[in-house]
Amino acid sequence: MPTGTILVADDDAAIRTVLNQALSRAGYTVRLTSNAATLWRWVSSGDGDLVVTDVVMPDENIFDVLPRIKKLRPDLPVIVMSAQNTFMTAIRASEKGAYEYLPKPFDLKELTGIISRALEEPKARRPIEMDDMGEAIPLVGRSPAMQEIYRVLARLMQTDLTVMINGESGTGKELVARALHDYGKRRNGPFVAINMAAIPRDLIEAELFGHEKGAFTGAQARSSGRFEQADGGTLFLDEIGDMPMEAQTRLLRVLQQGEYTTVGGRTPIKTDVRIVAATNKDLRQLINQGLFREDLFFRLNVVPIRLPPLRERVEDIPDLVRHFFALAEKEGLPPKQIDQGALNLLRRYRWPGNVRELENLVRRLAALYPQDVIGEALLEQELSQPTVSPLEGDGAQEINLGASVERYLGTYFDTFGDALPPPGLYHRILREVEYPLISAALAATRGNQIKAAELLGVNRNTLRKKIRDLDIQVLRSTR
Predict the structure, then answer these.
(1) Tens of pLDDT along 326-373?
(2) How far apart are CA 203 and CA 215, in angstroms?
(3) What number is the average pLDDT over the span 163-190?
(4) Cα separation, 95 vs 193, whole angstroms
(5) Using the 8-state DSSP alphabet, how is residue 16 labeled?
(6) pTM above 0.85, yes or no
(7) pLDDT over threshold 50, residue 128
(8) Residues 462, 368: one domain?
(9) Which residues are recorded with the post-translational modification 4-aspartylphosphate (predicted)?
(10) What is the span of the domain harbouring residue 104?
(11) Residue 395 above 70 pLDDT?
């Protein structure tokens, strides 16, 4: 029988009544309020095991309250509901630390399922000692290269030193940043990540530092930035090499002075965050090209960590494969094993996509093939597919998607000789590209449609329609 106290905040009396009845029948204790102030009082007093709240409240927007909740009680799950079923509402809910986002009207059965899952998940791990960190740290691999990474991380855990992580795409830079946070002295504070390459250049400063109402067109209310959200915790600046020069200048000033102002604001705000940056680019080369500030580089590069590509740690492949098969099994996929011939083939592969590519391959093997043991012949067939073809030679360049499509179409037209393909080619090609694109996004986000929509840059409802129209199987994580 479920147990726990659910704090429900919504200014719609009818919704409060429906939620009270449904959650009470499910066995939960329910407390109801129509304003954010009462909700915050309950949370700050330590009440409640989970929060269900609307976004727009009479006294305060819940997105302004969420950072305070996550800072004070980072383990408290918050489920956000909203009738404003826009892409940005879903994205902001995810960015602010909501456990889940539900558009109104919502399915009560889905809501109770989410609540049950959230309450069953383990709470924050105990603070660990450095002696047992080698076993607990969420990184996989026993190669000499990874052992050196572990030693560096162990020395950094009880410091606030700024860290620069360098590595190819897919090597696990964010995973290392999260490990620094989760096992460090700021583990009880928020971990906030921002990808510089994913933010429009003219919005990066507002994303980092927040903005005041009326600061620019569309700024209808004050919004907190990532520095404010990460106060007391860790701010992860991913793809720092893509940060525009004007934002670099402002970031440097913040690192030097320990304070910032919001866009459109005048009052300095003190900042208390640990900075972890990451890049897959050669920042020294960008400095020589005049694209990155040398003084900012030295501010960020206090402790450099280089993550080796998978081809430099092939001895870790068996452990990684077993780890990813175990994760897939926990998510409901059938258990799998892999034979020695297949492992040898994996060791010879170049892995241009690194650990992320290996993880996606393992999930594909677990989902698509009935065999209990994956053999060399099956794996060779899978690796021969164009989407994961190995690179030939050390100096080979990654194949450009546009060039690949152009070659494919050239071959396709050649099959018709002097004739033309049937009408409707445009939509046929788009459909062929959409399916693997959406499938890959869902695999990378472990079935989380909100995160997949953010990754793809589409509305969540649009993504749902595409999944339905293309008959894409969504494998949800149970973690």
Answers:
(1) 999 998 889 999 999 999 999 999 899 999 999 999 999 999 888 899
(2) 12
(3) 92
(4) 9
(5) H
(6) no
(7) no
(8) no
(9) 54
(10) 5-120
(11) no
